[in-house]
Amino acid sequence: MNLNLLDRRRFLRGTGVALALPLFESVGQAWAADIADTPPPKRLACFYFPDGVPMPLREDPAYEDWSWFPHGNGDEFRFTKCTEPLQPLRNDLTILSGFSHPRSRKVHGHSNADQFLTAAATGSGGPYQNTISLDQLYAAHVGDQTRFSSLVMSTDGGTGTPRGTHTMSFNRNGKAIPAEHRPKRIFDMLFVKSDGDAARRLALSESALDDLLADARSLRSTLSTRDQNSLDEYLESVREAERKVEKAKRWLHTPMPVVNAEQLQLNLTPDQPRRYVQTMFELIYLAFKTDSTRVATYQIGRENGVGKSDHLARAVGMNLAHQLSHETKRPGGWKNFAIYCQFLNEEFSRFAMKLKQTPEPARAGSMLDNSLLLFGSASSAFHLSRNYPLVLAGGKNMGFKHGQYINHAGANPQGGAWDGGREPWQKEISHEDKPLSNLFVTMLQQLGVETDTFADSDGTVSQLT
């Protein structure tokens, strides 16, 4: 094997700067043949959104269009307007209901994001102890094969507080792993490897790519026509990501006035928070495409309406995301909440479709076929830590069967608008959910981790494989 060719495949080089590259089929025939005979990479990405989802009761006029969960069961189901953005991925995803973590079912919904990927008994008060998260367990299995063992991201950044986490990822000791929320920092970490002087020169340059174009032209002449097109598309994707990163910085740097929430007047246009979310998804796509990592998490928002993420609702012309979950009893309340959730579904769908439309280099299928995506929340109805809304997408080359709605919640799941009395989480459990850890065991097994258990699992989800 020509190690210079291998290194050249991995990076474009400028003066003190290097840019990671995707795999090209035509660089080193013997090496490419070896790659084609090896199993494809198996990737995992997990996404969390707070505040639950709209769940109007069956008799409510909003039920038909604005309920988050589909109507029907098995492969005979139909999306509502809320989840309609997922329709193009119908055959590549499974919707699940009736799953939750047993040790958190009586915990207020604002306190349970910490345990979404861990299933730990983090509780609502008192001593706090967490355990390893699903992504970090998989990162321990596969992380040494890439430059970064995992990519941990959130809109609010850092770790947050116990029971008010800003991160989905916890290490083997249950310690929170800080999440990165600055797109520029993530971009530079993934794609700009610099010496001491490179940062200064990059600051004077319009693009990190400018200093690499000569090397790109040299590499291009050695590639097949198909790989030349792939290189051009990749460089344009990185360039576009750079543009988005610069624009997203404006939103992050908008001051947060300390005033009554009803009177907040942020100087934002609706496309700024939307662009921010799109940029975070785009960075994960590029990290996967360059095989910089095979494990990523993105906590889109934190619970309890605290932090920058609560203002993502401005992407759909509304004020605060958390507030929408409290106003469902008002006229049009279910629709407003559903339109915000529809926005989140759109951006997740956009990301998954991009993976679906990208062929897996030197192997069969698409990147989505070799990527397993979990998208969901640890609340369903108002502050209710049961019947988590869940989407599992991708992973067909890992043996997953999709195009179905696995409904363990029954025909009349707990829901409805809060009337000011006892909240749903305070009421007696009327239906016993399945342990969400069963799904995690299924995911880990198909990802190649030899395990029969995760936390409080008591089996697997057989319908998925």
UniProtKB/TrEMBL annotation:
Keywords: Signal. The keyword Nucleotidyltransferase does not apply. Transmembrane segments: none annotated. The keyword Coiled coil does not apply. Residues 1-32 form the signal peptide. This is Secreted protein containing DUF1552. The lineage of its organism: Bacteria, Pseudomonadati, Planctomycetota, Planctomycetia, Pirellulales.
